[in-house]
Task: structure prediction
Amino acid sequence: MQTLANWNGGGPGPWILFFPLIWAAVVVGVVTVLRRTAWRGRAAPWRAMADPRPTGDSPLAVLGRRFASGEIDEDEYWRRLSVLDEQFGRVGKGGGPA
Result:
């Protein structure tokens, strides 16, 4: 019986099993190059929804940093957060939209 990876016959031998591995390596390489170059500047759309923490110099981020560094106490933090929640349309201490 002739098999695809026939050692003694005139078939391609066991080397035929390496071709899927070579193609997998090519695909992984292309995806890696694209992720490191072309896709680097764009953020994935699901990342913005997955991490709702304020970033940059937004008032909520500044308030959070000041509380974390100990510049303001917990009562002051919640008082200022309630003012910011009213101003930015967010409600409640959970930080989520109403």
